[in-house]
Design brief:
Layout: H1 2-9, H2 18-37, H3 58-72, H4 93-107, H5 124-134
Helix pairs in contact: 3-4, 3-5
């Protein structure tokens, strides 16, 4: 809902499916919270591999790393695809909205509200994959 508010303030219309998607997002958020409470995977077992850079999307990766670096005041070159967003210094959900907004502007795309899921907002690689899909790259 905060993303929709920011978009509306910028003069962009809110997605009509937002009300329906909000219930799904809340459900996804609760699922993510439950998964965080579970013990971490043993290295080498059940570890989530880094998301591939879609369709050779160096532009997508550069846009994501640049936005994270600017928003969190981090050196983008030190960020890795496997970096979990919530573990980055200064990260919170409001800063994530700023990152999404910056990347959307840089790439000239808008990620549909229904595509903003907990899985896509977990780490640097998942953000790259999400924006790669939004630009027409393979997910």
């Amino acid at each position: 809902s905060y993303v929709a508010l920011r978009r509306a303030q910028a003069g962009r219309p809110a997605a009509p499916e937002l009300a329906d998607a909000l219930g799904e997002l809340i459900s996804d958020h609760l699922d993510a919270l439950e998964s965080i409470a579970e013990p971490a995977a043993t290295p080498g077992h059940d570890a989530v591999p880094p998301a591939p850079d879609p369709a050779g999307g160096e532009g997508v990766r550069a846009a994501v790393l640049g936005a994270l670096g600017e928003t969190l005041d981090l050196d983008g070159s030190t960020l890795r695809t496997t970096d979990v967003l919530r573990e980055l210094p200064g990260f919170d959900s409001f800063r994530l909205v700023d990152v999404i907004d910056r990347v959307e502007r840089r790439l000239g795309v808008e990620v549909p509200a229904t595509a903003l899921s907990a899985a896509d907002l977990r780490d640097v690689g998942s953000l790259c994959a999400m924006f790669g899909a939004a630009t027409g790259g393979a997910r």
